Amino acid sequence: MKTLALGNEAVARGLFEAGCRFVSSYPGTPSTEITAYAGRYDEIDCEWAVNEKTGLEAAVAACMAGARSFAGMKHVGLNVAADPLFTASYTGVNAGLVVAVADDPGMHSSQNEQDSRYYAAAAKVPMLEPSDSEECRAYTRLAFELSERFDTPVLVRLSTRISHTRTAMDEQPPESPERRPYEKNPAKYVMMPAMARARHAEVEKRMIALGDWCEDTELNTLTWGTERKIGVISSGIACQTAREALGGAVSYVKLGMVYPLPVKMLQELAEGVEELWVIEELDDFIETHCKKHGLRVRGKAELSPLGEYTTEQLRRAILGASPAEEASAASAAPLPNRPPVLCPGCSHRGTFYVMQKLKLTVLGDIGCYTLGAAPPLNSMDYCLCMGGSVSGLHGFLKARPEAASSAVAVIGDSTFIHSGVTGLIHMVYNQTPGTVVILDNSTTGMTGHQHNPVTGLTLKNRPAPVLSLAELCRGAGVARVREADPFDTPALEAALREELAAPEPSVIVVRRPCALLKSTARKPAVTIDAGRCTLCGLCLKIGCPALTKGEQAVGVNTPLCAGCGLCAGLCRRGAIMTGEGSA
């Protein structure tokens, strides 16, 4: 049956069809929906992990125990999971193990645009790269077969455009593989040096076998164009862009397996065309392989290593743009800039307003709240990686101990559990008197409201123990732990002043549920008394998109307003009224 499906939805379908029995992932855009869709299949035991390393470690052990298993993550999440991935390459598998990694060329929702193909080469595991939803389904299913045939984890590389685009998918009946028997085998699964040396030799043998297999696999295809002038080597979404840009006159090698890479097919294309191009987003991974084998190719010298390619960009570089095309591009009106903002009613807005008011140095983290760095709040000075704010504060105060009264770490609830708690333990152990602010909005907000250990529900919406962040911090050795309401800005300001003055580590858990949660009650929109409003601009400093500056008074976009009342609490003239009256 043919359906339209997101690439991520198609990967989940491939998991179901392959008889995958266990999925453990941490949400990360653009990979999140794979696990969310997989959770809809009753046959799959599907869970949110506290981080990518934990998820992959669980999947590796589950496959060792005999169940086909999967872990999904975004590209920076693979950094976190690299430790188990590299060693799982040595141990190999029992039942199949597949890892999906979604890269983000253009950084639509990421702090960098690293190229995950290098992980396949470094870990010495095969990598497949689909270019549409049907291939997402089929490649995921095939990946389990390859995993078991070659005794290896298999990486499936996606990208934002593949993950979040709907194309046709051909649903197939699922397999029902029996759980494989588990047999005690320390030489294969206990990676102490003596065993690991022997397993490394097996990895090298496997790579030779995979190299031979990739020369003949139908995953890689050669299609001759109507002319034999230009040839293109590509994979994934870049192949789709190239075909759209260059048309049927061009000859193409489409690589469905991007590690290891073939040689013979590329040589055949090179011998049959006058000019050979490698079109790949981000780094020159395929291009370097071609040059290593003596092929004269063009690529990154003319094409950018930055972001996503467009059809116009490829036409100009490879075919040459006509004067009419150049004129049309030059005359096109630029699109207005629409930067992301914190939502109306966002619980983070009051926190950042107070931090800006106190002129604090804020070491931030990965989440919706990273937008606290944007105007008009301008309240974040640093953001590196998941969990980096807390250990970052520790390092900052080691270099500038006098800043203990004016610097804080800010981190979300899910991110704190992911990797922030280790930084807090580190800070307490080394007796650094820093203040950590945990923004608890009762969800994993940035990636679409997934459950985590503080929400009391699992991915399958089953009841779970509720983790107390305050008690967790106390268990880590923090004596000074308190809670605050981000909409009560005077009380939050007082709490920050008090904790920043303390000569020991402290934590403030700022708690309000995300305004977009269905369980969050939406209040009536605020109203403005134009007679009292003096256009002082104080309420506009919080950057709420529901407030606008008019000629005579501040205006309210009523459908946008969540009625949180934060602006009313800031107005010194009493010009802003909530549903309960003026604040």
What can you see in these coordinates?
This protein has 20 helices and 23 strands. With 583 residues, it is an alpha/beta fold. It folds into 4 domains: 2-177 and 190-216, Rossmann fold, CATH 3.40.50.970; 221-319, Rossmann fold (3-Layer(aba) Sandwich), CATH 3.40.50.920; 348-511, 3-Layer(aba) Sandwich (Rossmann fold), CATH 3.40.50; 527-582, Alpha-Beta Plaits. Helix 1 crosses helix 6 (133-150) and helix 3 packs parallel to helix 4 (75-91). The longest helix is centred in the middle third of the chain and has 24 residues, at 193-216. The N and C termini lie far apart (58 Å).
Poorly predicted tracts of residues: none
Provide the CATH top-level class of the largest domain.
Alpha Beta
Record the strand order, biggest sheet.
3-2-4-5-7-6-12
Number of helices, counting only DSSP H or I runs of 4 residues or more: 20
Largest sheet: 7 strands, mixed
> How many strands in all?
23
The tally of structural domains comes to 4
Strand percentage lies at 15-25%
CATH homologous superfamily assignment of the largest domain: Thiamin diphosphate (ThDP)-binding fold, Pyr/PP domains
General form: globular
**Helix/strand-derived class?**
alpha/beta
Task: From the structure above, extract its key features.
583 residues; alpha/beta; Rossmann fold; 4 domains; 5-stranded parallel β-sheet; 20 helices; 23 strands
Topology:
Elements lengths: L1 E5 H11 L4 E4 L6 H7 L6 E4 L3 H13 L4 E6 H17 L5 E7 L13 H7 L3 E2 L4 H18 L3 E6 H4 L2 E5 L15 H4 L3 H24 L4 E3 L6 E6 H11 L4 E5 L1 E3 L4 H9 L2 E5 L5 H8 L18 H9 L3 H9 L16 H10 L3 E3 L24 H12 L7 E6 H17 L5 E6 L28 H7 L4 E5 L4 H12 L5 E6 L15 E2 L18 E3 L4 E3 L9 H5 L5 E3 L2 E2 L1
Parallel strand pairs: 2-3, 2-4, 4-5, 5-7, 6-7, 10-11, 10-13, 14-15, 15-16, 16-18, 17-18
Antiparallel strand pairs: 1-8, 6-12, 9-11, 19-22, 20-21, 22-23
Helix pairs in contact: 1-2, 1-6, 3-4, 10-13, 15-19, 16-17
